[in-house]
Specification:
By secondary structure, the protein is mostly beta strands. It contains 2 helices and 12 strands.
């Protein structure tokens, strides 16, 4: 018998893990993690990520479940070893303000310590053109974004984190933990 995970089960799993203080992704970093230690154990660099975006209220102490209603997901993929150097960012958000425009931003650190502190936010989109994520009447939104890296950045490793802001007032509504990725 074959069992598949359906949308409601996935949503429930994401919601249950969204407010945990422990990083929920296998690629989320702990302090003192670096590519050198990853390679020494035989692990490959993090070319692809599954980023969980949590309601900013989830990061408060203590983090009451009532503040963890909204969440999101970024499927961060670098397809192959070709000359395109593209990263695809498939974004999904839910339980945000209905019929509202949001934007996905990222900031990177070159110090590989698992502590994302950069405030150099870049709004992501379709290549260099920022693209909004517009929610429907239920507060759910999806957008397929992408970014092109320069060939010179291949092999570079960064600590990276993401946030979702309202386009009209730049209020941060969702954010991620710190992740590490390597440009393929």
């Amino acid at each position: 018998m074959r069992v598949s995970i359906t949308g409601p089960v996935l949503i429930a799993a994401l919601a249950a893990s969204a407010c945990q203080e422990v990083p929920t992704s296998p690629q989320a970093l702990s302090v003192n993690t670096s590519v050198a230690t990853d390679r020494s154990t035989g692990d490959t660099p993090n070319y692809n990520l599954e980023v969980i975006l949590s309601d900013v209220g989830c990061f408060s102490v203590p983090n009451p479940a009532s503040l963890c209603a909204s969440l999101g997901h970024v499927k961060f993929r670098q397809p192959g070893n070709d000359d395109a150097h593209i990263v695809y960012l498939d974004v999904w958000v839910r339980d945000l303000e209905p019929n509202t425009e949001y934007q996905l931003q990222r900031a990177v650190d070159t110090i590989l310590d698992g502590n994302c502190t950069s405030t150099g936010w870049l709004t992501l989109g379709k290549g260099l053109v920022p693209q909004s994520i517009t929610t429907d009447e239920k507060g759910t939104g999806r957008e397929d974004l992408f970014r092109v890296f320069s060939p010179a950045s291949v092999g570079s490793t960064f600590d990276i984190y993401f946030r979702v802001i309202r386009k009209d007032n730049s209020m941060v509504v969702l954010r991620s933990e710190c992740y590490q990725f390597t440009v393929k």
